[in-house]
Amino acid sequence: MKKIEAIIRLSRFDAVRDALADIDLRFFTLSEVKGFGLQKEQRTYRGSTYDPDYIARLRIDILTSDVRVDEIVSTIKKAAYTGEVGDGKIAIYNVDSVLRIRNDDKDENAI
C-alpha cells in the first residue's frame, strides 16, 4: 500500500477533484497548508501591493493499493499542471498497515 501526498494550488483543486472522481477514486483527505518556496506572489489590499510571507496551498492525502499509484499520480499531474513555478509536489510513501476503526478492517479492505 502507498500514501500519495500532493501539494497543489488552490485554483487547481476543482480540476484535480473532478479528475480523481473520473478515475473512481473513492476517498481522500484535504488540508489547507502554507508553503515557502521559489514562487513570489504579490497581493493587493486597499490599493497597496505587498508580498505575503507564505503561499496558500492544498495538501491531498490518498491511501491506495500499489497498482493504482501510477494512475492516480498521472491524473493529479495532468489536472494540477499550469506550467508555472508553484504547481506543486507529489510524494509517495510506503504504508505498512491501515486499520479501519469502525470494524477492524485491515490494509486493502480498510481503504
What's this model, at a glance?
The chain has 111 residues and is α+β, with helices and mostly antiparallel strands. The protein has two helices and six strands.
**CATH class assignment:** Alpha Beta
Biggest sheet overview: 4 strands, antiparallel
Percentage of residues in strands: 25-35%
CATH architecture: 2-Layer Sandwich
What is the end-to-end distance? 9 Å
Query: Tally of extended strands?
Result: 6
Structural class: alpha+beta
Please provide the ordered H/E string of secondary-structure elements. Answer: EHEEEEHE
Number of helices: 2
**What is the alpha-carbon Rg in Å?**
17 Å
Strand order of the largest sheet: 2-5-1-6
Helix content: 10-25%
Kindly report the average pLDDT value: 88
CATH structural fold name: Alpha-Beta Plaits
Uncertain stretches = none
Form type: elongated
Q: Number of domains in the coordinates?
A: 1
